[in-house]
Design a protein that fits this description.
It is a single chain. This protein is mainly α. The protein folds into two domains: 1-78; 80-112. Helices cover 54% and strands 3% of the residues. The protein contains two helices and two strands. The protein has helices spanning 37-78, 81-114; strands spanning 129-130, 133-134. The protein has a two-stranded antiparallel sheet with strand order 1-2. The longest helix has 42 residues, at 37-78.
Amino acid sequence: MLENPVQGHPATTAGRTNLIYGECAVENQIKFKPSDNILQQLVTARRDEVVRWQKSQADRLKAMEMQGQEKISALRKTLSKDMLAVLDHLDKSHENARGLIAADAENTKSRLVASRPSEENETAMHPGLAGGHLAAPNSQG
């Protein structure tokens, strides 16, 4: 029987890990009949292939993040103290704005959930509707 390289247990047993920066998601919920040995091997091989792909993607993302951080630190070394102070101030204001936007979105979402439909006829003021019915002259035939 093929072994699952991520969790170290047979690939046919139930198990789960999360895909968060390098952890591979493997959800083994498939039950095989004893006569499905070839299908079981194919599924296990495909699962192992997906796990390898997820690991390589996570490694690639980590490498890109490290390269970006190295470039930022190299750039910061070449800048003057005044420019660094301005960049730090802009970074802090960006984080504050992000927090305000998230709070405003949550506030709007909660107001929307708490709101009720209007009991008035909202279409009364619409120029193409009269009493909720289409009143365009060319639509009458």
